[in-house]
Amino acid sequence: MRLVKLLCSISNPRSKSKTLFSLPSLRGGAISFFSSFSSSTAMDASGESLRRDLAGKQAAVDAQADAVRSLKARPGVSPSEIEAAVEALKKLKMESADIARQIQSSTVAADESSSSSGAAAAVGREAFRQAVVNTLERRLFYIPSFKIYRGVAGLYDYGPPGCAVKANVLAFWRQHFVLEEGMLEVDCPCVTPEIVLKASGHVDKFTDLMVKDEKTGTCYRADHLLKDFCKEKLEKDATLLPEKVAELKHVIAVLDDLSPEQLGAKIKEYGITAPDTKNHLSDPYPFNLMFQTSIGPSGLSSGYMRPETAQGIFVNFKDLYYYNGNKLPFAAAQIGQAFRNEISPRQGLLRVREFTLAEIEHFVDPEDKSHPKFGDVTNLEFLMFPREEQLSAKSAKKINLGEAVAKGTINNETLGYFIGRVYLFLTQLGIDKDRLRFRQHLPNEMAHYAADCWDAEIECSYGWIECVGIADRSAYDLRAHSEKSGVPLVAHEKFSEPREVEKLIITPSKKELGLAFKGSQKMVVEALEAMSESEALEMKAALESKGEVEFHVCTLNKVVIIKKNMVSISMEKKKEHQRVFTPSVIEPSFGIGRIIYCLFEHCYYQRPSKTEDEQLNVFGFPPLVAPIKCTVFPLVKIEKFDIVAKRISKALTTAGISHIIDITGTSIGKRYARTDEIGVPLAITVDSTTSVTIRDRDSKQQIRVDVDEVASVVKEVTDGQSTWADVMWKYPTHAVTPADEA
Ligand code: AMP
Fold it and tell me: Which of 203, 480, 574, 694 gets the most CB atoms within 10 Å of its CB?
């Protein structure tokens, strides 16, 4: 989600400031339609010098982070000293993010330049997508919602096979995450009161910049219009001078960082008009993507349809922590609908206005982010695209997960553990591992409080798509809700021996403040109590030297004078029996619709018909996600075969295997082709009363199995206990004849 201003993208509470695609990829790859990611060009001299600056700044960040860590570990260090060191670290991180952003601009610009040579590949991708989407829509995997009323952009229904695939994906998600990790699952309402989303930052910052056709009022996403304009110019205008080419590429690279004013100025400068009418466009303005509603009949209580499920978990933290025996770490999970009123939804299921999210919030002690099961994933090796490779214009590469954590490429074990688990989840579903990569966020993409973020990106005909975000969000969300609700969302660590600590005590004198500020007294008291340690110590010094000090009270939006007798500030030594802290949260967030769409593309292929005059569509789903596990076909329409087919169907039902019987008189080859098209992995053909054939969808090989054994063989293969190759060994092969082909 883009944010109104650059500053916001750094400090946004739920920072979503990203375009759907990351850098374009247009190099020839394993499948002719596609290409693997390519970040092509060499950086110029200024790029080199920026990278040197970044390396220097990064070294300073690391050194300062070490300094903070050792200060925290040293006994007797005052909190103000630690706070000052943390502030210095934040400042260095901001500076480093700024340089990274500049490098990213030149990298994206360079990559865009290579994309025009991929026009032919783009045509291939478009044709491939058309073939997939036609099959999906014709076989009712999904349907544009409210179609008989001409539909609504960004809203889709899942039809019968789509529903079955989605149910299988979610069942596997529950098994792979909730069950495996003993997560606490919750199910919260979609309608959410305003205060919750105010605290999370969504009310103020969950925005995209929009422009309107001045005559018709049609709305467009401002950054999309500008990007489309620049890309079209670059692709089609051969007369462009080199300076103009560089300028357009630069604009594409920095799109996410442009303020409304800068975006508006560019739209005017380039003379961009409304695409449909060529009318003038309004200035860009932020549009909040949440669907607003009111709760109850009075209309006084404002609410929103939730834009994510995570907030439901955060607000329940206290009860869930108690439910978990007041122990950390633990994870809560939620599957549910999320709503985002996208300005211009496009790319089918990839950018929609209502979609299913599956989210995990793993709560952990910020001082110990180790994971007891990290050893289970440490040997995995897969495509990763760390920050450094992106900034030095290299490609994603295979990296060992254990090494990535050990070297600090991935910030901590728990984050690494979830990255590994997400990799296993996606590849077991059927996502091609060579078209899956984990891309680390660049410093300017991350909120300042985030420790590290990685996206699982899947390559499909639209490019590399972010399908799962895995972020270490530190303590931000729980703190925000603690502050707004007044309910401490904290965890405790009991000490075996009491420890002596120095604590800052701020005691406002309500009597003196009441006399001075009357009705505003409460606000002044709250502001004094909310001072950070460094602010309080600064005030103490000023009161001691001058007797009074100016103090800005945000809630009053004015500066007041605080005198010495109005507040006492001191550092006191105290014995503590426990540590009270706000847990960090590690959040894997899965866009289920995006994963399913990419799965459709990765599983789809075509093969020629018997006469080779037609291409037949096949979805090669793994049995785990296949909407129907097998079909039963009586070879010809005779009663004795029908009786056997019904007996097999009963046995399959008892074994819990979804199946369909097709008793139409159509040729067996056509019936196979029809079910290949919805991805049914196995087909049983009844051609005798004692034994039947089972056909494997992808190899088209057949085996002969006794009628009484057939359900258990199908179960073995579809449950994943045996592969087709295993059962091929065990049972006699049945020769495939031309009649078996469509
Ligand atoms: P976010 O909270 O923006 O990081 O989104 C979490 C996940 O939701 C992303 O990784 C996407 O997979 C998915 N997602 C976000 N926006 C949309 C959308 N408009 N349509 C479909 N999926 C989305």
Answer: 694
The residue with greater pLDDT, 76 or 667, is 667
* 592 three-state secondary structure: helix
Contact 649, 684 (CB under 8 A): no
What is the whole-number distance in angstroms between the Cα of residue 453 and the centre of ligand 1? 15
Which pLDDT tens digit goes with each residue over 250-277?
Answer: 888 778 778 899 999 999 999 999 998 9
Q: How far is CA 323 from CA 326, 328, 372, 584, in A?
A: 7, 11, 21, 18
Instruction: Tell whether the model's pLDDT for residue 519 goes beyond 80.
Output: yes
Q: Does residue 594 have its Cβ closer than 6 Å to ligand 1? A: yes
Taking CA atoms only, the protein residue closest to ligand 1 atom 14 is 591
* Residue range 442-494, pLDDT digits in tens: 877 887 788 999 999 999 999 999 999 999 999 999 999 999 999 999 999 99
Supply 633's token pair: 């076909």
Strands (E), 386-444: 397-400, 436-440
Q: Model confidence over 556-581: pLDDT tens digits?
A: 888 999 999 999 999 888 888 999 99
**Residue of 309, 346, 357, 464 with the most ligand 1 atoms within 8 Å of its CB, for mutation:** 357
Residue nearest to atom 11 of ligand 1 (CA): 591
Beta strand spans in 582-677 (E): 584-591, 604-608, 615-619, 630-634, 659-661
Q: Are strands 330-339 and 184-185 parallel, antiparallel or unpaired?
A: parallel
Give the least confident one: 34-38, 341-345, 414-418.
34-38
By C-alpha distance, which of 100, 85, 98 is closest to 6? 98
* Distance of CA 682 from the midpoint of ligand 1 (Å): 34
466 lines ligand 1 (CB under 6 A): yes
For strands 27-28 and 35-36, give the pairing. antiparallel
pTM for the full predicted model: 0.80
Q: Which of 692, 691, 707, 695 is nearest to 742 (CA)?
A: 695
Provide φ and ψ at 399, rounded to 5°. Answer: -135, 145
Length of the chain: 742
Residue whose CA lies nearest to ligand 1 atom number 3:
16
Strand, helix or coil for residue 616: strand
For residue 185, what is the enclosing H or E element? strand 184-185
- Give me ligand 1 centre to Cα 101, in Å: 23
